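ok, trying the design again with the full structure, not the truncated one.
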């Protein structure tokens, strides 16, 4: 006998798919433009290859950390501390974390976590805007 789902869960997504996929995809792409352009510019100008490598690799790590945390939450196992998730986001893994939040519907409702997450995203955007528009004068 299966447990009935709560009406909130059913209303959120009846088939388990990500709601508003097109809109969320456009926001994701928009958020990735500055870091991508900045990392490519750094790479091509010979300044540093680190951002071009770190963003994809740390995003994979972040995605895996979210997947593991969601899996552990379902099985009442040892959870990944939020500070570890935020550290991976701060090191450049926020794109993978954002994808994981939507794919696994994990950590999307906790307001304090989301505030920290979006602050980290904003810091990355601010850094790349400063780098691209002002040559890194301010940060």
């Amino acid at each position: 006998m299966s447990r009935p789902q709560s009406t909130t869960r059913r209303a959120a997504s009846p088939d388990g798919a990500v709601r508003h996929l097109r809109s969320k995809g456009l926001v994701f792409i928009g958020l990735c433009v500055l870091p991508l352009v900045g990392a490519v510019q750094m790479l091509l100008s010979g300044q540093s290859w680190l951002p071009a490598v770190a963003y994809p690799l740390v995003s994979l790590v972040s995605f895996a950390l979210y997947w593991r945390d969601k899996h552990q939450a379902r099985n009442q196992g040892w959870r990944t501390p939020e500070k570890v998730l935020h550290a991976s986001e701060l090191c450049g893994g926020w794109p993978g974390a954002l994808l994981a939040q939507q794919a696994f519907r994990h950590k999307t409702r906790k307001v304090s976590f989301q505030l920290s997450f979006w602050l980290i995203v904003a810091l990355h955007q601010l850094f790349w805007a400063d780098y691209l528009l002002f040559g890194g004068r301010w940060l």
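Keeping the full-length input from now on. Helices lie at 7-12, 21-44, 50-74, 82-104, 111-134.
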